[in-house]
Design goal:
The strands form two sheets. A seven-stranded mixed beta sheet has the order 2-8-7-6-5-3-4, with helices on both faces. It folds into two domains: 8-29 and 267-373, Alpha-Beta Complex (Aspartate Aminotransferase, domain 1); 47-265, Type I PLP-dependent aspartate aminotransferase-like (Major domain) (Aspartate Aminotransferase, domain 2, 3-Layer(aba) Sandwich). By secondary structure, it is of the alpha/beta class. β9 (295-298) and β10 (305-310) form a beta hairpin. It has twelve helices and twelve strands. It is 38% helix and 16% strand. The chain has helices at residues 31-34, 37-44, 57-67, 79-91, 106-114, 134-140, 163-176, 234-245, 253-264, 266-290, 317-326, 356-373, and strands spanning 19-21, 74-77, 97-102, 118-123, 145-151, 181-185, 209-214, 227-230, 295-298, 305-310, 332-336, 346-350.
Length: 375
């Protein structure tokens, strides 16, 4: 019996097309961006013994400092996905409920479904700029709710949920689901545009809030497989450490050391990547305006991704399918909205991976697909 539901998003780890507009990250770093010659010599002396289940102490201190918490609040995980799975495994199970905002990263939903909890979807709608309806959330909560899973900024939209709204959600949980934790996946929080500062972490809203993230998206190092879960609830942290020990024991010593070195230079790294994202976002915004008769969008708050919609008044269902069918021959790939629980007429447009000239060529390919779909 299949424990995890299949999803076509797995295609993203296969061969890339000429113009990959489906990816949700910026350019990947190279090892030479993290280690100079002296660093390589130092790395040669690194012990390859087991690390600790909670993670490298210096690395936890760096992560904690960036979030305004204590190192002992941090559990280092094998990518952000392990953090999401361990939270689902620890908090949820048969007889419990979890609320998950949708559209969402499909693996986050799969983790909840795999532990046999009842998942109650909270729809985030394009026409409402992907902001949660708190009255709708209230109806979904119950004393059996153990986890409310949100992302801010979201995947696939790049839209952030304001801290004021998250504060109201924390109050709702205290009233309607007192045993629940609020999970805020903050994977894209540091992927701000240009000189715009990153928003504060939701962790400031209290001990029932858990934050997860990784080095994969904002920092461009998915190959390191380093993420984290942060909780100021001592008992939950203890359970997460135990669950990690019983699944992967520890993260790789090399990965943790490289992550520590990467975070030591994260200031200039994020500034450089933020400037790149700002330039590419401006290019996408110009393209959306040039195609205003065909598409609309929700402008993202952070991250290397956004949601674009084929206008319902222009594209019927058959034209939507023709649009998707036209893309492969044009060498273009987008993130099909159906991967995330969205409509087929909405697609995730990833604008962070490619240089400006290649992104522009990919957008030209999208324009060609739009016109082919309407013939």
């Amino acid at each position: 019996m299949s424990r995890f539901a299949p999803n076509d998003i797995v295609n993203l780890v296969g061969d890339a097309p000429r113009h990959d507009l489906a990816e949700s990250l910026g350019p990947n770093l190279r090892l030479s961006d993290v280690l100079d010659a002296d660093g390589l010599r130092e790395l040669a002396g690194l012990s390859l013994g087991y690390g600790t289940a909670e993670g490298n102490a210096e690395l936890r201190a760096q992560i904690a400092a960036a979030h305004g918490v204590q190192p002992d609040d941090v559990v280092v995980t094998a990518g952000g996905m392990q953090a999401l799975f361990l939270l689902a495994f620890t908090l949820c199970g048969r007889g419990t409920e979890a609320v998950a905002a949708t559209p969402l990263f499909p693996l986050a939903l799969n983790a909840l479904q795999a532990v046999d909890t009842e998942v109650r979807p909270l729809p985030l709608r394009f026409d409402a700029d992907y902001q949660p309806d708190l009255a709708e959330l209230r109806r979904l909560l119950s004393p059996r709710t153990r986890l409310v899973s949100l992302a801010s900024p979201q995947n696939p939209s790049g839209v952030a949920i304001p801290l004021a709204t998250l504060r109201q959600i924390v109050a709702l949980l205290a009233e309607c689901a007192p045993d629940a934790f609020l999970l805020v996946d903050e994977t894209y929080r540091d992927a701000a545009y240009g000189d715009t500062p990153a928003v504060a972490s939701a962790l400031e809203l209290g001990p029932r809030v858990v934050s997860t993230a990784s080095l994969s998206k904002c920092h461009g190092a998915p190959g390191l497989r380093i993420g984290w879960a942060i909780t100021r609830d001592a008992e939950l942290r203890r359970q997460l450490v135990t669950a990690k020990f019983n699944t992967t024991i520890a993260c790789g010593a090399v990965d943790e050391e490289l992550a520590r070195r990467l975070l030591s230079r994260s200031g200039p790294l994020l500034a450089e990547r933020g400037a790149h994202l700002a330039r590419n976002l401006a290019l996408v915004e110009r393209w959306v305006h040039s195609e205003a008769t065909h598409v609309d969008w929700v402008r993202p708050d952070a991250g290397a991704l956004c949601c674009v919609r084929l206008k319902p008044a222009v594209f019927d269902d058959a034209a939507v399918e023709r649009f998707h069918a036209a893309l492969p021959a044009l060498g273009v790939r987008v993130g099909d909205g159906r991967w995330f629980g969205e409509s087929a007429r909405v697609f995730r447009l990833g604008f962070g991976l490619l240089p400006e000239a290649e992104l522009s060529a990919g957008l030209d390919g999208l324009s060609s697909a739009l016109r082919q779909a309407l013939r």
